[in-house]
Specification:
With about 120 residues, the chain is mostly beta strands. It contains no helices and eleven strands. Strands 2, 4, 5, 6, 9, 10 and 11 form a seven-stranded mixed beta sheet that branches. A four-stranded antiparallel beta sheet has the order 1-3-8-7, with no helix packed on it.
Length: about 120
């Protein structure tokens, strides 16, 4: 089993930055993918970014490219999401998740088996 704990959320003004962390415990997978998703109030959960655990390949949704950076520290079993130039539309609960097998559908919520509890990010003007 895998447990995921997110941290680093908070309230910032437009243009500010936050760094989210997700610490994993339990069994890890050499060919797994870890992703960040977000869900705004009244909206469906959407893909934000993902990283391949073993080779570090990264993927981003178009709306965060150039502003967000996903990275991982294999030794610490931790994935990070550095968020810069935050906008009000980034306001959401952010979740990290793990997919335990390879798939080209890195953006597909349904393919991730383990989820953290979420951390709130609020961006105000």
């Amino acid at each position: 089993q895998v447990q995921l704990v997110e941290s680093g959320g908070g309230a910032v003004q437009t243009g500010g930055s936050l760094r989210l962390s997700c610490a994993a415990s339990g069994r890890t997978f050499s060919r797994s993918t870890m992703g960040w998703f977000r869900q705004a109030l009244g909206k469906e959960r959407e893909f934000v970014a993902a990283v391949s655990w073993n080779n570090g390949n990264t993927y981003y949704t178009d709306s965060v490219k150039g502003r967000f950076t996903i990275s991982r520290d294999n030794a610490k079993n931790t994935v990070y999401l550095q968020m810069n130039s935050l906008k009000p539309e980034d306001t959401a609960v952010y979740y990290c998740a793990v997919r335990t097998y390879y798939s080209p559908r890195y953006y597909d919520t349904n393919e991730y088996a383990y989820w953290g509890q979420g951390t709130q990010v609020t961006v105000s003007s």
